[in-house]
Design a protein that fits this description.
6-stranded mixed β-sheet; Rossmann fold; elongated; alpha/beta; 7-stranded parallel β-sheet; 13 strands
Length: about 375
């Protein structure tokens, strides 16, 4: 086991200024060093033998074929149970998270390496006492830039009729010219205004698009947003939109928000992009809309069931771009997670509010 520390390790308590952190997901050595350099009061407890091998940068799940022996599992649990905080949800498994929280009365904080860690916290079935005792945070915001780029890819693909260009190339056909649709004249609806929604809005605004945002927490005016609308006012604006970007978390309130009724009101030929959660979209309604022309093009990074079943009609529809939930990955994502964790560790040690705290009512 490696301990990244600069002094003796001691249990954090009132008056103490150290934080023992068990690394529960794979993390590169340089990322571990980055954390303790930024916050030297952190002690990282790491045993690479107890974690799956990373296949690439920011591969926090690791090799799916990795299995711990009974002896390794016992050591891994002992490591988690000795810590004040966890970096990562063990194995991404809500059951393992529940075990770690209940077995360790000194646990104060769990940081998920994903933006959607709130769903795993909800699935752990923790009681009110544990949800109050332990702070849960996510890596929301780290993925905003690559996901906004995927959203732009989807909108541009719809605006420039990528499926038509692909068909012409396959046929080696030089067709008549046709009118293009400039993004600078587009009206785009962004569903959700968290880290991803804000970055998508910023990028669209820079291209000259008119951005409308649906958010339950819309507040003061924002330079990248022309207007905010509440969920119950979507019907007043949806028919105007040339493109819709879903950047919503998966909660009980957002499940199947994009359904048959929603899609019945869209402008024919609208482009739809989902970089939020697959549960927000009723895929049967989406497929129907893609087939009858209500949706001209869809770019999807997330799905109701993942991996997307081979029997899904989405695979065979020519006006669909499918990304296997990989649009958020980038070469610098792991550094972003490390920096966010180090910043939150400083906040915890100094008694300041944490960033990206999970809503333990709706779990996002």
């Amino acid at each position: 086991m490696n301990e990244h520390t600069t002094s003796a390790t001691e249990r954090i308590a009132p008056g103490h200024k150290r934080l023992r952190v068990a690394v529960a997901n794979p993390l590169h050595e340089e990322s571990c060093r980055r954390i303790v350099e930024r916050e030297p009061r952190v002690t990282l407890l790491v045993d690479p033998a107890l974690l799956p091998r990373m296949r690439h940068r920011a591969d926090f799940s690791g090799d799916p074929g990795y299995l711990r022996t009974a002896e390794q599992r016992e050591r891994f649990h002992a490591l988690l149970d000795s810590a004040d905080a966890l970096l990562g949800i063990p194995g991404g498994d809500p059951g393992e998270l529940a075990r770690a929280v209940r077995a360790n009365p000194g646990l104060r904080w769990v940081h998920a390496t994903s933006a959607g860690g709130g769903q795993q916290v909800g699935a752990a079935g923790l009681g009110p006492h544990d949800l109050q005792r332990v702070a849960f945070t996510t890596s929301a915001g780290v993925h905003g830039s690559p996901l906004s780029e995927f959203a732009l890819l989807g909108i541009l693909s719809g605006a420039k009729d990528l499926p038509r260009l692909q068909r012409l190339k396959e046929r080696r056909e030089w067709s008549d010219r046709w009118i293009s649709h400039p993004i600078s004249r587009y009206k785009v609806l962004v569903l959700g205004f968290g880290g991803i929604g804000r970055e998508v809005s910023r990028c669209l605004s820079l291209l000259g698009a008119s951005v409308t945002v649906m958010s339950r927490k819309a507040g003061a005016a924002h330079p990248d947003v022309e207007r905010f609308v509440a969920p119950d006012a979507l019907g007043d604006v949806i028919g105007e939109m040339d493109a819709i970007v879903c950047a919503l978390p998966g909660t009980d309130l957002t499940t199947h928000l994009v359904d048959e009724r929603f899609l019945a009101g869209v402008k024919p030929g609208v482009t739809f992009v989902n970089v939020g959660r697959g549960s927000v979209v009723d895929e049967s309604a989406l497929v129907a809309g893609l087939r009858d022309g209500r949706i001209g093009f869809a770019a999807l990074d997330v799905f109701e069931v993942e991996p997307l079943p081979r029997t899904s009609p989405l695979w065979s529809l020519p006006n669909v771009l499918i990304s296997p939930h990989t649009a958020a990955l980038s070469a610098d994502q792991e550094e972003g997670v490390a920096d966010l964790f180090a910043d939150n560790a400083t906040r915890l040690l100094d008694g300041h509010p944490l960033k990206n705290v999970v809503n333990t009512v709706e779990f996002y």
